[in-house]
Structures
1.
Amino acid sequence: MEQSKHRAVFIDRDGTLNVEKDYVYKIEDFEFIHGAKEAVRLLNEHHIKAIVISNQSGIARGYYTPNDVHLLHDYIQRELRKEKAQIDAFFYCPHHPDGTIDEFRKVCDCRKPSPGMILQAEQKLNIDLQSSYVIGDHLSDIKLQEKVPVKTILVRTGHGNKALEELQKEKIKPERIEENLLDAVNYIIRTTNPF
């Protein structure tokens, strides 16, 4: 018997889940965007996988290490669990073609807008991409809709307003534009029926 596939919301991290600051990797610099914890809890309550996908080029640039990212993700999970919420999986890309750390200096298939992180999640968590969404504040988040069959929502937090200008120039349309992660999740829940 084939296991049924799951809907997911792929959430960009910096600027969407948490306040955008240059290269967030220290716990003391991390701050959830207002409503973000509630957004994750709502996804959990509606049996929609909450998956973080994040470009972390600071690793390739030598600003911090993969271990720093894991420690921060552990902290995020602990804070969410206090609110009866949790991220189902974290995926991040440590690469950048201009990196200073040889191991991570490369063109890869996981750095957004390449779909590698989403494809990993699809396999690992049995995700139905056609019923899933990407929520983010960058052009690279929205461009994922060109690579995989997901719907996209641009949020105005972080770099969202700048990304909106870029999207208009490139004539790329997300399904929706919302103020923040919570508004985006409420839209998804309002307009879709869980399996």
2.
Amino acid sequence: MPESFPLPIFPLHRVLMPGESLVLQVFEPRYLTMVAELAGQEFGVVLIRSGSEVGGGADYFDVGTVAQIRDRRDTPDGRLFLAVAGDRRFRIVRHLDRHPYPEAMVSEITTTESNASELRNEVVALFRRYAATLSEGGFTADVMAEIPIEPEAASYAVASRMRLAAPELQELLETDSTVQRLERQKMILAKEIDLLRNIWGSNE
């Protein structure tokens, strides 16, 4: 079993993928305390299964992403804006009860790797078609940012740009095999393209 370590937890109603950038607004006293007490510049982001982001008591998934703080801005009214980047996946081993904010012992998740370069290229090509089909209906997907060559990083980059419900993104995040994640994305993208073309009435 991988070695575990304590990590402050920040539950959200969205998934943070490794490599993805996100700006968080922090205003609850317990999370302001969390940021002030960080030993490093890292905390964990997890998807809420049920409950609210505010006030505590939310039930959340066990697999999340370590967020690294890249920048911060304090406001006169006491709020804090954090620019973070997703780094690596973790799994909650057990919850801790020693702070006003959520904390857990976690272990890093090792990805099952194999040669997936060709599959990565197929998924990226499908994503480009998906983005083009979205644009026909007046929607956008971020196709300007470069998608990494490395298959695992590419799978996360594509996932972060797909317009999917949070539980579907969580399923992709929890997939330990890069090949299986890319295969799943390939299937989802093909279905989404067909669905969108039916909605827009496109015959391309």
